[in-house]
Fold this sequence. Notes:
By secondary structure, the chain is mainly beta.
Amino acid sequence: xxxxxxxWHGGAERPGGGAAPxxxxxxxxxxVIYGATGGGLGGGHNGRILTMWNKTLDPKSPDFKFTVPIExxxxxxxxDQDAIDPGMLLDPTTGRLWVSYGTYxxxxxxxxxxPITGERMKGNVERDIAIDCEATDLIYRDGxxxxxxxxxxCCDGVNSTYNIVVGxxxxxxxxxxxxxxxxxxxxxxxxxxxxxxxxxxxxxxxxTIIDEGVEVMSCHYEADFDRSGRSVLGIRPLLWEGxxxxxxxQLKAGQYQILSQxxxxxxxxxxxxxxxxxxxxxxxxxxxxxxxxxxADQQLADVVGTWPQGDIAVRTSDYMMRPHQxxxxxxxxxxxxxxxxxxxxxxxxxxDRALAATAQYELTTxxxxxxxxxxxxxxxxxxxxxxxxxxxxxxxxxxxxxxYCLYSAGDSTPTLAKYDFNSDNSKWKLEGYRPCKSW
Length: 439
């Protein structure tokens, strides 16, 4: 469990054993669903899916008590089905509660539960909707139902080939079809996330909507190459490309250009533009046989002495590959984080001059980063691939800032204003990455 989405600790323990639970809050109660045995484990493929309720997930609460488990599905070990790995969807359009479950040993099945009791709906007959995957999940977005399945092999550490694929349908009961028209019941599925960045085997998809246009996906990785090949939790930005979900990438520490989506201008210090000296000739006098030579980039040492010593304002302008336009973004270890990433400092590359929020809901840069909350930034990739940048705190206000973001009030005027996903003024691009160190 986590209070802030960054620091995690042990929570409630569910009785009954089994594996791969899913939890959903319905009304003022939590419905827990899980698989018992099956999966080729002690019970072979004799699997059972069970549900139970609890008023709270806090084991310290006096209301913490699980109800008696109810079996809602099973497999006998003989048919081509294995009743484990359940995932729930409470349909926001109808209020009906659906569960998908199953593994490679047979089919993925769909059943309907009563959202009041957690029991199987009377008369409900299971429907086969996919093959060649397991650990499925159902989500709904913009008139489409999405079935996300874990494909590949698991439980083999750094050799696990798990990946997550998806199909979609206008009907919750399918058919679920991928981007090239393949039905998932015949092995189709579009890639959502696979191995990369020294982790492999992503499986068991989950989705959290943080704000309009701000979503994250969760999974577990079968192995982290930098942590002795151990299985770890993965939280990634969730993007939507042409109506299809795809995992974004975790932002890496390094040097970036911060460009407004509004105009494409670069965030920069409001300092004098220093020209680069260049020998020039009239174009009609240029000798085409004369060798060409590279012109060196302007260096920080060439211009930093011309900058004021105190606070310096910021603006946006044409990107010209100048030192006052290059920013280093790095996580601050002791600052904590949020669901999806750590708080970061944003400083002019090669300096300690830090971007900060002011009590007037404006922006400035201070000569040195001190770790103050107004100098810490929450940086989230949005569902369209752009970024939202929010100061952790605005001086003179109470608590964490969850509303105001870096905002283009005009083509050349950055400020702080309320986040609006439907306006490009709230969106920024991070380009020109040069590595610093990995998070």
